[in-house]
Amino acid sequence: xxxxxxxxxxxxxxxxxxxxxxxxxxxxxxxxxxxxxxxxxxxxxxxxxxxxxxxxxxxxxxxxxxxxxxxxxxxxxxxxxxxxxxxxxxxxxxxxxxxxxxxxxxxxxxxxxxxxxxxxxxxxxxxxxxxxxxxxxxxxxxxxxxxxxxxxxxxxxxxxxxxxxxxxxxxxxxxxxxxxxxxxxxxxxxxxxxxxxxxxxxxxxxxxxxxxxxxxxxxxxxxxxxxxxxxxxxxxxxxxxxxxxxxxxxxxxxxxxxxxxxxxxxxxxxxxxxxxxxxxxxxxxxxxxxxxxxxxxxxxxxxxxxxxxxxxxxxxxxxxxxxxxxxxxxxxxxxxxxxxxxxxxxxxxxxxxxxxxxxxxxxxxxxxxxxxxxxxxxxxxxxxxxxxxxxxxxxxxxxxxxxxxxxxxxxxxxxxxxxxxxxxxxxxxxxxxxxxxxxxxxxxxxxxxxxxxxxxxxxxxxxxxxxxxxxxxxxxxxxxxxxxxxxxxxxxxxxxxxxxxxxxxxxxxxxxxxxxxxxxxx
Length: 522
Fold this sequence. Notes:
By secondary structure, the protein is α/β, with parallel strands linked by helices.
């Protein structure tokens, strides 16, 4: 099923895309040069939490570094205890060995939602999303750090999960840590961390020595410090303490956000993170290798980055299934069928004969534009994979714009018509002229007797239930029907698709023939 946006998701998105008061990062573009394998790319931020995934070496950490360098900060702004400066420069991340070749000829644009742009800023106006530029000329240095828009930025690297018992400085000062008083957020942090890991804390505080600090808690009458905490527990206290310490509207950048947390804790973590982002107007940009993290975030929050023939490809709104099938590299099928959502996948798996199913994989991508981007990415590959992109039926009338978008994303000098011919040869459409849920339900209602036997519901009652389901709104139909027949949403979808396979299989004759021809090399 498509990700179901909660009221909190909608509230966060509405705030984020309309806020000009907190200097939110909305776009980042590398337009010239290469950085650690990153070629020119553009990434948009349309939700307060953005999770970036991709294989090792694809450029995720480099993007985090670019994000950190988008803003400046006042001299008295928040900084982590172990930092000298309350802001970041490229030197913080791009450390050079004597034999390293430094990146040169670089140009980075930052699109920032700001309410008081100066006349000198690019495309300036008083209010809205405009761009600032950072440049590193050949043989030169990065320009004008102090002219960056002011905003607190904090980077939390993977060192946050190193246990204090393994940190030499913590062990050296183990008897010297002292309580410096409360900060006012300790109760919020202990409640959140306790909920995430399933533990009740009676007390929590940080004790400090010099630039080092150590968490200290009481739970079930027992007092213990970070020396006796697990990596995940330590990391949660560190992350939420920072998030509550920074000013409202800060940008928090986190590398491999799931580290140290088990699956259930990861899910709870993201849910709490959403609440804190809403409360404190915080923006989070992170990397992840966790499908659980992706599953807890709406489409706009999921990014996938890959390097294809030396070119950086960013896929936004990618589905969790497709992103992590790419990461696992388990797909050894002859052809990949790429679809928009789980409904389309379930439908195809029901109607395809086993002789085809055993030779293909069906991958959920996430949207029509994501399908077009995958066509473009495959077109640019030196060795193209065998794919068939299966759009929903309502995309037939949008074919022209989808092909033009695919051509644009391919960034090729090949003629538009030549690219279109190749793309059309790899496109199919589901039956109907509407979205899959609506088509499935309306088609099944034509054979109400068969559907009735699959659902074990009387035909007259089922007719009324179908009407209520269709009235529930786009993509909510099977959830509503499930509530009315006492089955979960997935099971209802399965039984509707079984009815399609049994009584309406002929609608898929053309798709099946096309896939068979591709498998046979015709």
